[in-house]
Amino acid sequence: MNHQWLPDKPGEECGVFGIYAPGRDVARLTYYGLYALQHRGQESAGIAVADGKRLQLHKGMGLVPEVFHHRELSELQGHLAIGHVRYSTTGASSPINAQPLVFRYAGGMLGLAHNGNLTNITELRARLTATGSVFQSSTDSEVIVNLIARYGQTGLVDAVMKCMIDLKGAYSLVILTGDRLLAVRDPHAFRPLCLGILDRGGYVVASESCALDTVGARRLRDVAPGEIVIIDESGLTSLQGMLPRRRAHCIFEYIYFARADSLMDGFNVNRVRREMGRQLAREYPVEADLVIPVPDSGTAAARGYAEESGIPFEEGLMKNRYIGRTFIQPSQDLRDLGVRLKLNPIREVLAGKRVIMVDDSLVRGTTSSKLVAMLRDCGVKEVHLCLSSPPVVHSCYYGIDTSNEEELIAAQMPLDEVRRLINADGLHYLSIEGMLDIFGERRNDFCTACFTGDYPVPVPQPPKAGKFSLE
Amino acid sequence: MNHQWLPDKPGEECGVFGIYAPGRDVARLTYYGLYALQHRGQESAGIAVADGKRLQLHKGMGLVPEVFHHRELSELQGHLAIGHVRYSTTGASSPINAQPLVFRYAGGMLGLAHNGNLTNITELRARLTATGSVFQSSTDSEVIVNLIARYGQTGLVDAVMKCMIDLKGAYSLVILTGDRLLAVRDPHAFRPLCLGILDRGGYVVASESCALDTVGARRLRDVAPGEIVIIDESGLTSLQGMLPRRRAHCIFEYIYFARADSLMDGFNVNRVRREMGRQLAREYPVEADLVIPVPDSGTAAARGYAEESGIPFEEGLMKNRYIGRTFIQPSQDLRDLGVRLKLNPIREVLAGKRVIMVDDSLVRGTTSSKLVAMLRDCGVKEVHLCLSSPPVVHSCYYGIDTSNEEELIAAQMPLDEVRRLINADGLHYLSIEGMLDIFGERRNDFCTACFTGDYPVPVPQPPKAGKFSLE
Amino acid sequence: MNHQWLPDKPGEECGVFGIYAPGRDVARLTYYGLYALQHRGQESAGIAVADGKRLQLHKGMGLVPEVFHHRELSELQGHLAIGHVRYSTTGASSPINAQPLVFRYAGGMLGLAHNGNLTNITELRARLTATGSVFQSSTDSEVIVNLIARYGQTGLVDAVMKCMIDLKGAYSLVILTGDRLLAVRDPHAFRPLCLGILDRGGYVVASESCALDTVGARRLRDVAPGEIVIIDESGLTSLQGMLPRRRAHCIFEYIYFARADSLMDGFNVNRVRREMGRQLAREYPVEADLVIPVPDSGTAAARGYAEESGIPFEEGLMKNRYIGRTFIQPSQDLRDLGVRLKLNPIREVLAGKRVIMVDDSLVRGTTSSKLVAMLRDCGVKEVHLCLSSPPVVHSCYYGIDTSNEEELIAAQMPLDEVRRLINADGLHYLSIEGMLDIFGERRNDFCTACFTGDYPVPVPQPPKAGKFSLE
Amino acid sequence: MNHQWLPDKPGEECGVFGIYAPGRDVARLTYYGLYALQHRGQESAGIAVADGKRLQLHKGMGLVPEVFHHRELSELQGHLAIGHVRYSTTGASSPINAQPLVFRYAGGMLGLAHNGNLTNITELRARLTATGSVFQSSTDSEVIVNLIARYGQTGLVDAVMKCMIDLKGAYSLVILTGDRLLAVRDPHAFRPLCLGILDRGGYVVASESCALDTVGARRLRDVAPGEIVIIDESGLTSLQGMLPRRRAHCIFEYIYFARADSLMDGFNVNRVRREMGRQLAREYPVEADLVIPVPDSGTAAARGYAEESGIPFEEGLMKNRYIGRTFIQPSQDLRDLGVRLKLNPIREVLAGKRVIMVDDSLVRGTTSSKLVAMLRDCGVKEVHLCLSSPPVVHSCYYGIDTSNEEELIAAQMPLDEVRRLINADGLHYLSIEGMLDIFGERRNDFCTACFTGDYPVPVPQPPKAGKFSLE
C-alpha cells in the first residue's frame, strides 16, 4: 500500500531488518528486505553492515531505491547487517533522524535501529543530559544508544538487559556489532518482530514476515515478549532479557499497517482483515446492491463483507497507481478535483446502486466525505460507509502517528454527527468485541488503547506535544 | 497498473491528451490527464500549450511528475494544450523521440502528439526525403508533421485530410495551433480516443475516459473512425476526414492495456475483463480449491472466473507496490529470489490447495514458469494457469510492442509443450470465439490480428526489423 | 574565464569541435575538446559519434561535465565525432536548441554543429517552409540542415557548396556522416576554426587552438575563408567551396571571447591583449600609482598597460572562483553587497592610491559603476577606467549576443556622460586605429562592425527583434 | 583557488563563520560568507540559525550552492547563525562528518563548528566513552561537544573554559546558543579567526577577512590566542579563556591556503606571497628569459620573483577554469594528456626560452614532473622550478591534511634526486630563514613544524594512522 497519498490515515513509525549470513551479499539482501517493508516508512532508509571488525553505514532521505544504488550497495561489504525505513509525515523531516545509528562507545562500535515509541523518553533524556550526554536528534533511538553506552562497560548483552529495565513503552530493536546481531522486543511485544532462517545458512529478523519471504528466508517464529535473540558465529542464542508482561500487540498492524501477506504473532494479516469484514457484515447487515472497497486498505475487509452478506463485490473505485511523493497537488482553481486524481469511480458499475463502501478505519474523516460526494455524483443512490475497525478516540503513544485527540473525528462528536458530516446514509464501525472475537482465545493479547483508552503502559498526561524543536 | 516491472507483457506505445478551456489552467489539467494515462507510457512526457498566438513546449524523459514540477507548469500559460506520454522499453530510449512535437511550417506554428503505428512509414519517409525533408527522430509523428507541412499551403484542415489519405495504419492524433485543437482518429479506429466536455466550458480529448474523469470532464462519446474534431473559439466542429473503414479497435486494450475504469468504444474495460474470466470458466471448468489472480493484470478476470465457477477467490499473491524503475535487480548470487521480490505468495492461503491462477495473457512465458515454481514451493498441489485471452501468435504493427514472432512462446510450440515448459498442471487460453462473444453484435469491430493473423491493413512483409538506427 | 557571473559582457554563441581518429576514444577526446571550449558556451553541450555506419547522439542542458558522465561517453562508440557547446543567456533556454543536430535525409544520416549567425535566416526559412519544410527550433543550424537536404540528392559536398551560395553571414560548421568529417568556414571567415593533426594519426578541427592542445593535437593551420575540409579514410582533402571574400575575423574574439592561450588566424590571443594594453598606455598616459585589472578579462591588457607605463601592476581585485550558475543572488536586503560577492578589493593594496583599472570592454556599464564605488569605498583617491577596446556602439549580427543598441551605453550618450555615470575620474577607450595597428599589415582582415557600423555583409534593417517565439 | 583539481597540494580542514545581526537575513549572509570561504573546504557545507529560542540546521555534501538553495535559506529564520565548510579528500567522505553539529545537552540547545585538529583526541574520546559517551562521527568536533556537555551544568562559558584546559592542539570554534554567539581560538592561535562589525549593527567572525568583506563587515581585529568572544543582546564581551601561549600561526595559510585578499594576524596574504617570491629571487638568482607561475597558487610569488629579478613575467600556462569535481579523468588510452587538460602551455610564449616556473610548494611532486615534461615539449630550453616555501618534510597534526611522511617527496630523498625525478634543470626552495624574514619582528609567531619538525604542541608518536574506521 502506498500510504503517502492518503493523508487521512495514521502514520507508521518504522520497519527494521537484520541479517547474519556469512558468504552472502548481506547489504543487497537487506535492501530487498527493506523494499518489502517500504510500506512501513517512506521518509528515510539506511543500512549498516559489519564484516567482523568494521561497521559501515549508508543512509539518506527518500525511498529505498532513491537512497541506495549499485555503488552504495557494493561498497557495503560484510556478513551481517541491519536496516531501517522511517515513516513520512507531511511536516518537516530531517536527515539527522534517519536510522540506523552507528556509534562508537566504550565497548567498541555499535549499530542500532528501532521501531516503536518510548513513553518515558523525556525523563530518560533528562537523566542522561544531567550527567553529560548530548543529543543530536529527537529520536528515541539516540536515547537508547546513550543508555547502552552508560551500561556498556560490562558487556553488551548485560547493557541491553539493564536498558530494558529503564525503557518504558514499545520497542523492537535490531543491534549490530562487528560480529554479532541482536534482536530485542519489549516485554509487551507492542510492535512486531519475527525471526527466519536462510536455507544456505544464516538468520534474518524483520518487522514483518513478508520481508523474510522476500529474501528467501523461512519464518521460524516471532521474537517473544522481552526476548533478546543473539546471533553470531556460534549460532543463535535466546535470552529472556525481561520477564514478559501481558501481551499488547498493536492491533492496528492487522487493521491497516502490515502487509496482507505477513504472518504476525500467529495470525495472517489478510485473513484477519477478511474476518473483520465478515464480522462487520454480521453486526451491520445493510441492505444494498454492491459492496465496494476503498482501495487498497479496505479491499480485504470489503471482500469479507461481500462473502458474508452475499451482496456482490465490485471494484467501484479505481486507484491511480502512479501517484507518488512528487505529485503536484491541485491548485485553488482545481481544488474540486480533490480525491478524484487518486481514486476514480466507475460510473457504469455504480450508477443507480445502493452501495456499501468498506474502509479499514476513519481517522480525521476528510477523505471519506469527498469519496461519498464523488459516489453521489456518479448517481449512487445510497452510500453506507462501513469501517472494519472501531472508532479511534485516543492517541497512540507506542509508535503510531495518530493525530492528537482533537483531530480524531470520532473523539469529537457523536457517531451520527460524523455520519452527517461525511453525508453518508449509514456509518458503521466494527465493535471492539467483534474485532477481538476474531482472535479467539488470544483476544486479550492486543493493545486496543486507541479504541478503549486502556493503555498497557502508563502514558504522559499532557497530550503528545508538538514536534521536538531540534531541527 | 505498473507495467514496468513485468517485462513479460506487451508494451503500449503512447497516450494522448488535448484540452481547450479558456480561463482554466490548461497545463495543470493536462498534467493530471497525463497522470491518469501514465500506464500507457512511462518513458517520456510532454505538454505543449497555446495562448492564442504563441506555442510553448516542455518535455523530458521519465514519469509525468519527474518531468513536470511547479516551475515548468506555471510557465506554460495559455488556454489550449496537448500532452503525451510515451512507453518505456528495456532498450535505449532517447529524448529526441519525446512528444509532442512543436514546429513551424508555412502555416505557422503547430504541435502534434500521436498514438499508434503507421504501416507505410518507410515508404512515406522515403518519399519525403527524396524531395528534401529531414528527420531528426525515428518516430511516425515526425513523418506526419512533414506530410502536413507539404500539404499545408492551403489550410490546416485540408492538409490533415490529405495526410489521412497517405497514412496507412493506426493513428490517434491531437494537434494544436495557436488557437485551435484538433483530434483525429484513423478510419479503422485502431487506437482509442474519446471526447469530453467540461462543466465550466471547454472540451477535452484523451486516449481513455479515465483521463476525462480525472480532470472533471464528462465523457460525450468516442471520436469516430476517420473523424476530425476541431475545437476553437466558435465551439466544436466535426468533419469526416475519411470514410470510415471496418472498425478494428485493438482488443488488447480490453485485455491488458487500458485502465479498468475506462469506457472505450462502448464497453467498460473492467466489465469486459470480468466477462472474459466468466467465459474462461465456462470453457474450462477446472476442478480446484481456489482461484487466484496474478495481480494486477489478472484480477478482474480471476474474479469473473471465481464467480462463474463458484470456486473461492483469494489474493494468493501479494504485489510489492513500491517496485519502480530504479529498483536494483538481483545479482547472480540472489537470482533465485527472482519474481519473489515483486510477488509474494501467501503460504497460509495456498498450502495444500489446488489452485487456478488467472492472468490476462502469456507472451514470452518467462514470468509464468517462475510463478508456478513459487506456488509449488508453497505447497500448492496443483496449478492451473488460465489466461483470459487467446494465444498471441502474431506480431502487432499498429502500435503495440509485442515481441517478434520468434519470441512469442505460443507461436513457437504446441500448447502442451508450453504447459510442460512452465510446469503447470493445466494451461487454458480463452477461445477467440469466446472472447468475441462478449462483445455480442459488435464482435466484428475489433482487430484480432495478434491472435488470428488477420491484419485489417496490409503489413510489411519482413518481420518488424530491429530498432531504427537513429539514436 | 567564467562569463556567467558578469552579465555586463557580450555573450558568445558557440564552440564547435570535430575529430577523425580511428582507434581512439573519439567521444572522450571530444569531451575534453569541449571542456577547453567551455568558455564559448555554458548553456548546452552535445556530442555525435559515427562508427562507419551509425550516428549516435547525446546532448543536454548544462556544462559539459553536467551533460556527460562515464555512462554517456562509453555508449558513444566510433572513430569520428563532432561536438558543440552553446552559450548561456539570462533568459529562457531550451533543449530543442542544443546541438549537434543529427538527422536523416535523402543522402543518409548527417550530424551538424554550427558557430555563427546568418543574416538572411528569415528569408531562407520562409523559402523552405513555403515548399514544405518544418522547423522544430529557432536555430540557424536547422535551416542549414534543411538546405543541405534540399540539395542533397547529388552528393553531400555538392550540397554543401550549393548551401554556401545561399548562406549569408557567419558560419563555422562541422559536419559528420557515417564515415566522413567536414569542416566549413564562411568566405569572410568571421568566426574562428582551426585544424590540427594527431600524433598517432587522425585530424581535429576546433573553434580554438586551445582545444587542439588539450587533446594532444598539433595545430596545422586555420581553415581558410570559404574552405571545405573533408576528412575520411583516404585522408584530408581541401576544397574551395566558395571564393574567399575580404577577411572579416571577429575582433572581439581577441578582445574578450577567446581563451588567452589560443592562436587564431595568425595571432596569439594573449599577446594581442597585452599589446592592446600597451597601446592604451601610449594613447592615454594617465598619472597614477597602480594599474589593476578587472579579473580575468582585463588582466592581460592591464599587464601591458603597466609594462608600457612603468606604473606598478597589482591584483587589487580578488575574484571568487566558486561563483557559478547556481549562485543565489542577493535579496533586496543585501542588494548593497552587489558585485562584492564576486570581486573583493584588497584594501591594503588600494587605500590612498590613484588607480588605473583596466578592463577589456564596456557594454552596458552596470558593473563598472559598482566597481568604481567599491574602490572609492576602500579609500582609492582616483579611479581611471581604461578599456582595451573602442566603444561598442553597434549590434552584432554575426554571432555575438551584444545587446540592442538602446542598451549599449556608449551608443546612448557622450563619453563624458558615461564617465560621470560610472563616477570615474577618467574613462579611456582604445582607439580603433590603435587597436588595428597591433595587427600590422593584416589590419584590414577584421570585422569591426560593432565599433564602426561597417558591416561586411548586409544586415537586416530593423534592429534585432526579440526572441523568436518558438519555445 | 580551486584546490580540487590539483591533488598534489595539502588539503585544508575547514572554514568557519558566525554572525549576530538582529534584523538582517543572517542565513543568507552566512551563505555568502561561506561562499567566500569555499576555498577552505568543498566536501560539505552547513548553516545553523537561532532565533532567540530555537536552533535550526541544514547541512549536506557538496559546495555551498549545491547544499543551499532558496528554499533551504528561507526556512532558516533567526538573528544569529554559524556556518561551516569542510574540505574534500579523494577518499570516502560522509554526511555524518558535516558541520555544524547541533545538539541538546543539559544546558539546552547548542550549535558548534570547528576548524583545526586536536592532538589528544584519542585520549579525550577514550576518557569520555569510559564514562558513557557515544560518538557517531570521527570528528574532533563531536569530542568537543561532549566535553562541553560534561562541564555544562554550570553555564556555557565556564564549560568552554574548562574544555580549553583539556583540548590540546588547534581549534578555532564558533558556538551558537538560542541567543548567543561565541568565538574561541586556541592559546597558540594555530588556525585563523577574525572579528568584524556590521555598519547596520551586529558582529561577524570568520576564518578569513575576505568573508567579512564579502558580507559588508568591517574587520576589527583577529580573535586573540586563548580568547573567548561572546556576542549577544548586550553587545560584545571578551574573556581570556586561557592564558595565551607562544603564537604559532600556521604559516601554510600564507603560503597556500588563505585567499590572497585576506588580512590575517596582521599580514596581507597577497603581499606575503609576493615577498616570498622576491626573497626567492634574492636567494636563487637564476639566469633565465621568463618567469612563469603555476596558476593560481604560484602567481603572486612568480610576480615577486619577476619584479626582484627583472626577468619578464609571462602567463605561460593557461588554466581551464571549468575543471570541477565532476570532471571525468582521462582513461588509459588518454593518460598521456595528463595535466594538459587543466593547464595548457602557450607555445608562442615559451618556445626556445629558459624558464623559471614558480609554484608555492611541492608536496608529492607528481604534478610538477608532468608540468616540466609539458614545458619541454613546447620547446622550452631550460626549466627551473622555484618554490616559494621550504621543503615539506614533516606531517601536520594541527589541521592540514599533508600526506604521511612517506609520501612527502622532500622527506624521502635528497634535493638533487628530487630535481632529477621531476627532470628540472634547477630546483630551488625558499629557505626557512628567508621565509621568516618577511615577517620581521614577528618571525617567531608562526608554526613551521611541517618544515622543521618543531611542533609547538606535542604530537602523537606513531605517524598519523589511516582513516578512522567509523564510516
Automatic annotation (TrEMBL), chains A, B, C, D:
It comes from the Bacteria. Its cofactor is [4Fe-4S] cluster; Mg(2+). Residues 14-234 form the Glutamine amidotransferase type-2 domain. One of its GO terms (biological process) is 'de novo' IMP biosynthetic process. [4Fe-4S] cluster binds at residues 250, 396, 447, 450. Its EC number is 2.4.2.14. It is an enzyme of class 2 (transferase). Mg(2+) binds at residues 297, 359-360. Keywords: 4Fe-4S, Glutamine amidotransferase, Glycosyltransferase, Iron, Iron-sulfur, Magnesium, Metal-binding, Purine biosynthesis, Transferase. Binds 1 [4Fe-4S] cluster per subunit. It catalyses: 5-phospho-beta-D-ribosylamine + L-glutamate + diphosphate = 5-phospho-alpha-D-ribose 1-diphosphate + L-glutamine + H2O. The active site is at residue 14. One of its GO terms (molecular function) is 4 iron, 4 sulfur cluster binding. Pfam families: GATase_6, Pribosyltran. Catalyzes the formation of phosphoribosylamine from phosphoribosylpyrophosphate (PRPP) and glutamine. In the C-terminal section; belongs to the purine/pyrimidine phosphoribosyltransferase family. PANTHER family: AMIDOPHOSPHORIBOSYLTRANSFERASE (PTHR11907). This is Amidophosphoribosyltransferase. It comes from Desulfofundulus thermobenzoicus. The gene is purF.
